[in-house]
Structures are given as structure tokens and as C-alpha cells.
Amino acid sequence: MRICTPHCGVAPETTSGGETYERELLEGLGRAGMAVELILARGKPHPTAVPNWTVHRFAIGRGLRWYVAPLVVPAAIRRVHAAVGFDLLRVHSLRYIGPSALWARRRYRLDAPVVSHHHHLDPSPLNRLIEKRVVDASDRVVVGSEFGRRQLRDELGARTDHVSVVPYGVDPRFAPRPRREDLQARYGLAGRRVVLYFGGLKPRKNLGLLLEVWRALAPRHPDATLLVAGGGPLLGELKARAARLGFEGRAVFTGYVAEAEKADHFNLGDLFFFPSAMEGFGLTVAEAMSSGLPVVTSDRGSIPELVGEGGFVCDPATPGPFIEKLSLLLGDHPLGEKLGRANRERVERLFRWERCVEGTRRIYEQALEEWRRRAPGRRSG
Hints:
elongated, Rossmann fold, alpha/beta, seven-stranded parallel beta sheet, six-stranded parallel beta sheet
């Protein structure tokens, strides 16, 4: 099968869980024998030497904006179709690519089903105008969680009979191993218990709660340090607030962590704390679980589906339950190890990229088979 996927980005280095998903999934599909016709803006980085990938370029030199996409995406899709053809048109973003892909199919009479991928909805008055229409018009839709499917139904009123859940995967390099001594020295963690947060430092991650909880926990556990791994727009504000609260080395901020060092940073933690108010899957939670860490996370979005018996989910509107569960784990090392082992086993069983790639491939094949069974006059744009 040959798929065409106009795209905003699949960079080897990214802070976006959605972009990581796209990169890993498309690499996996290529290795599984699918021909991937990837369209990116000029200058956008991508992995090299991936089997069965061909990279085409939009006639722009910067990343797409959703309101610019209709001016460049349909023409690029047409060029790829004319040059090599394709069996399936893939939409990685309902807003950025969806309208343009559906329009291109109708305008240029492309004989291909449209399969859209979706993670979660951010609040926007345009959701019903754009996202709902794309979902309803797509031949199939792939989401990473049951939460993602419910959100489409409950918040958009979109049809979901054609929506399939395929969980993300986790790379096996996220595995338990001893702490790297150079990283321990860099962050002053030798001999310390480490509460780890890893992720983008942006508003929906609910990071105000992170420091509020730590203000209560730090005096109770003088041997513990909060390690905040990751970069983002809130880094400066969080560091300043930690300084005002007088944490004095008890809260350490790493800044951006390169992809090659991510797994080693997870191994610095004894437990994982993730208060995010919204996740379509929760990739960093899954990576922490794969690394053998017990987790204390919010109960919003998709995260309760991800976390089984290896952690605790708490209401992110209040710090009390987080304080209680984190304090329990900081004081009971054998319990943390037990929960960490359960997390590792759960990821191995349910959340590897091979499962994600295979599940997605089956949906693409079903969509193409269903499309070809329809009479030409019944194939909608």
C-alpha cells in the first residue's frame, strides 16, 4: 500500500508527544513495507534512511499554519498523486490537514480513502466548524484512547461508528537501568530520592500544581528532590517561582532534554509525578511506566486508561490526593518497586510501537478495502 501524508513535522528532536507519535508510527509503517509519501515544508527536518519513505516538499519554507494549509496542501497532494500515485490519503491533524485533504480529493477526483488521526481536542470555538466536519467526512478515524473517541462524540457531536482506538507505543529503550553518574552529578542527585516530572512546560500540563504539591512535600521528605525535566514556554516562570518558594536546590530544572538522553533521565527518578489536565494518550507517562517507575498522575483525559495497578490517579483540581500518594511512595520504597514492575509489564503487554503499527496498518487496509467495494458513484469527497 502507498499512503500520502501531508505533514506539519516529524522532527527527530521534538518536545511534542504528537510529533513523536507521528515520527515513530510512520517509521514503523515504512519498515513494515508500506510506501510513505511524506510532504513537508522546505527545511523541515526528518529522520533519514527510513525504508520506504519518500519526502516531498511544500512550496513554503516554514511550518504550516492551519489557515495557510488550504493554499498549499491540495496542490502538493495533487503533485504527489500525479508523480507516483497513492492508495490512501492520510490526515495527521484534523485542523491543519483535514479540510485540505478532503477538498483535494473532491476537487481532483482522487480515488483514495481518507483516514484521519486524532489525539485530543483543545478548547476552540472552531472545533465544531472544522474538526467535526473532518471527522464526519473521513472514511476512518484513528484515536489513541477511548477518551479521544468519547470526546469526539460528547464535545463535537461527531459520528464515531468509524472511529477506532489504537494506543500509542513506547520504545523499549525506556527500561530500568542504573542512574548515570554524570547526570546525578550534573543535577546534584547523589544519595537523593527523586520525584520526576518529564514533559513540555506549557499551560495544559497544570504545572502550578507541581510546585504547590512540592511545597507541602519537601519539608516532610528532606532526602528528596523534585526534578523537572523538559523545556517549554513556562520554564523561566517556574524557575522564578521555585526560587521565591525557597526550594534552594530541592527543585531542579533540566531544561530541554535531547532525544538521545531521554531514557537516562527517566532512570534518574524513583517515582513519576504528572499533574497534566489534558492528554490524548500520555506518552511520557507510558515512558515512565516502561522505565519501571511508579506513577502519580491526574485522572483527566486518557491517563486513567493508561495507568493500571502500577500507580495512582488523582483529581488535578486539588493538591491533597497528590501529596498523600507521593508521600506514601517516598516513604515505602518496596511498594514503589512493586508498582514499577507492574507498570513495566503493562507497557510490554499493551503499549509497544509494533502493536501500534500493526493496528494502524490493519485499519488502513480495511479502509482501502471498504473504499474499493463501493460503487464509484457512491465514493464521497
